[in-house]
Amino acid sequence: MAKLEALASITRLSDHVVRVLGQNPGKFTLQGTNTYIIGRQNTYTLIDTGEGKEEYIPVLASALRDIAKPSAPTDPDVSDIILSHKHGDHIGGLPSVLALLRQLWEERNISKYFPLATEATLSSTPTIPSSLQVLHTPGHTADSIAIYVPSDDALYTADTVLGQGTAVFEDLASLISSLHKMHDFAESKGQKETKLYPGHGPVVEEGRELIEMYIQHRFEREEQIVRVLGSEEGSKVDPWTTWSIVTKIYAPYPRNLWLPAAHSINLHLKKLEKDGRVKHVGGEGIDSQWVLVKI
Q1: What residues pair up with 30 in beta bridges, in sequence order?
Q2: Nearest to 215 by CA among 269, 170, 166
Q3: Domains annotated on the chain, with CATH
Q4: Edge-to-edge, what's the strand order for the sheet holding 78-82?
Q5: Angle 172-188/258-274 helices, nearest 10 degrees?
Q6: Are 139 and 175 in contact (CB under 8 A)?
Q7: What is the number of other CB atoms lying within 10 angstroms of the CB of residue 142?
Q8: pLDDT tens-digit profile of 171-221?
Q9: How many CA atoms lie within 13 A of 208 on its CB side?
Q10: Residue 198 · residue 182 · CB < 8 Å
Q11: What is the pLDDT of residue 106?
Q12: Distance from the CA of 100 to the CA of which of 2, 42, 107, 123 falls in 20 to 30 A?
């Protein structure tokens, strides 16, 4: 992986958007989970809440105190919280964020409170601020969404498209469909380019181009798998397993990448099976066995 671009804990991206890092850098979270404060003045919308790191709360509090511009003393800082998908690094911080907001409101003698975070709260149908537009973009997870921020002509892509590297996914067919949906949506706005505000990594200025690269990357990997199964060498291996395909395709890469890659390859194979191009003939997991369907 390329060296990660350093990101500040708090970054004003525009007059309407401030990015706050979740203070949870890691192998899969890159510089950390990006959370976004949306709005020009109170009340704001917060997109995602980090994973619940104690270090995140004072950073978020500092960001809110710096930008808060209530038009009335009783205006809360944040009126809405949108959670992009079910993964813990995006929703785990919700209880501590709600506690922070209660504290900030008490400081200004505001009596209105968010309800306590419960399972029902997380699964209920959301009410989205009219200034934002939501797209259902399953693939990374079944419940993943993207959020269009008109003021910035920017699309918050959560973990479907990252600011650096490629994303993991649960369902490849759904992911590709969602990538096309986001690309077509961005194109429909008629702008030369649509920015991406990702769930991890830096802002992407040329959003449509990156989405196209994601689609092309998946198509190329799919064709690579088909070529392996249909090669002369492939005819001598009866049948190929997910693991033997991985060892062939990822031979130039470090071995510690092979096992994580096997999950992606398996999902590619399942999509190819739905498309009628390969057939599963036995085994499970990395030992799943596959043959090319002769047309």
Answers
A1: 26
A2: 166
A3: 10-215 (3.60.15.10), 231-292 (1.10.10.10)
A4: 10-12, 17-21, 34-38, 44-47, 78-82
A5: 80
A6: yes
A7: 12
A8: 999 999 999 999 999 999 876 779 999 999 999 999 999 999 999 999 999
A9: 13
A10: no
A11: 83
A12: 123
pLDDT reported for residue 128: 67
Burial class (CB in 10 A: 0-12, 13-18, 19+), 95: middle
Q: How high is the mean pLDDT of the chain?
A: 89
70: its two tokens: 């209530």
Q: What is the model's pTM?
A: 0.89
Spatial separation of the C-alpha atoms in residues 27 and 21, rounded to whole Å:
15
Q: What is the pLDDT of residues 11-55, one digit of tens each?
A: 999 999 999 999 999 988 999 999 999 999 888 999 999 999 999
pLDDT score of 125 more than 70: no
Q: How far apart are CA 213 and CA 210, in angstroms?
A: 5
The residue count for the chain: 295
